[in-house]
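We modelled the chain as a single entity of 251 amino acids. Its sequence is:
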Amino acid sequence: MSKTVSLPCEKNTCLRLADLLISVRDQEELLEVRKSEAQIIDLKEPDDGPLAPADPALWQFAADLWQRSQTSTVTSLSAALGEQDQARSIASSLPPGFDFAKAGPSDCDSGSKLCRLWDEMRRLLPESTELVAVAYADWDTANCLAPNVIFQLASEQGFKRCLIDTYAKDGKSTLDHLGHQGLTELNHIARQQKMWWTLAGSIRKSMIDELQRFGWLPDCIGIRGDVCIGDRASSISAELIQGWCQRLTCM
């Protein structure tokens, strides 16, 4: 996976500013996003929560599709597994072929509870699937540890990747919740600990300029609602996906 590019582009050279993760809910969306320049396709069901899992039939469809075209695709597959109880019950059903998986940390209000969840997920997931540590920007609503605490704990537990998202899908973004100071602290922890991190949670294309004014960008930006025709539960638009891909390329 590529790292964030912070240097300006040389003349006639295009560099990617950050990877793009797009969440999809069905086969039609999966095939549409697969035609784009998105680096990660994440399977989840937006109607049922921040990290609700997609239909297991979609997992299998994606795994089979990637296996058939293993030599011709560079797009990674990711799966949302739900919050801790649901994640524990379904993690072992995830087919091989997924690069990443995520379990929500809600109600893990101590480091010991969260570490137990992570340990269980790592045992249950296919050996080739990397567990990504998740933090919630509205951590008090989710009854979990604060994002900076989770990022630091993830580093201590050997994680290579973290993601920050919002638990309540009420229109407030991760940027709204944490502001410049909170996000900069997360970026500092990730850089210091050499962890690759994704910023998600109602992120809009118009926010990229604001993030760049902070003096940094995350390694990856995760989106769904901003490439949908309506809200995050509506259909994905190929035109909006293309707009995001272009925005994350230094022209």
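As a brief sanity check on the tokenised model: The mean pLDDT is 92. The domain at 15-250 is CATH 3.20.20.380 (TIM Barrel).
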